[in-house]
Amino acid sequence: MKPDIFTYLEYRVFLKDAFEAVKAGSPKLSYRTFAKKAGFSSPNFLQMVMQGKRNLSSTYAISAAKAFKLNRQETEFFQNLVGYDQAKSLDEKNLFYQKILKNKRYTTVKTLDKSQYEFFSHWYIPVVREMLTHKDFTGESAWIAERVYPRITAAQVDSAKDLLLKLGMIRQEAETGKWTLADAVISTESEATHLALRNYHMSAIQLAHDCLKVFSPTERDVRSVTIGLSESAFAELKARLETVWKEVLDFAGTQQQADAVYQVNLQLFPLTRERKL
Length: 277
Fold this sequence. Notes:
This protein is mostly helical.
């Protein structure tokens, strides 16, 4: 039975499963035979694509779709999966993922992936989550929108609230109407969520950049240092920063009432690369 392509985000995995499905009905089918049928130039081309050693051109993507007897909608979806996987920039990757999300059959199956992508793709959603439990929150979305910087709209607050409810990250007490935080776990294992996390980190770095123009030194703490490290020292420093990060989260967990919402960024990245000969 042909696998449902609309349950996949990684096209190479789909190719592997689709080939196995075809082979189950035709045990004598080989990669060489299939490559010839699909019009591939190399007999082991499909294997190399599955293993991530080769990419599919737009022409070969259509050839593979025809060989696996995909219909028009499935072929278009497959092409978007290929584009998503082989994108050369984050902007291009996001563009293809947005096309993938437009397919209702995919989003019906991958509702959680879509929600997690939306959660991490908008920097203000975690801010709204914290502000909902602010001691002075009036219950009006405009109250939050007026206090968030950079400014957001009341409609964005409402949208964020709906998403947080869907993800089980907030709940409202029936008797008092007050909002409380729920300890829902957001999975970071899916490919889609990894993409959204990169979007989130880029937004967080941009926010740090902008805060230098807006907030005085007494309102912020921004530091930077450039150091030389061996490979083993880098691993040790990364582990130490992980410990610091856990301490920050533990400390935040002890706070009963917050007067404001802060962004804490910890970044460690290379400024050099080994020279390629």
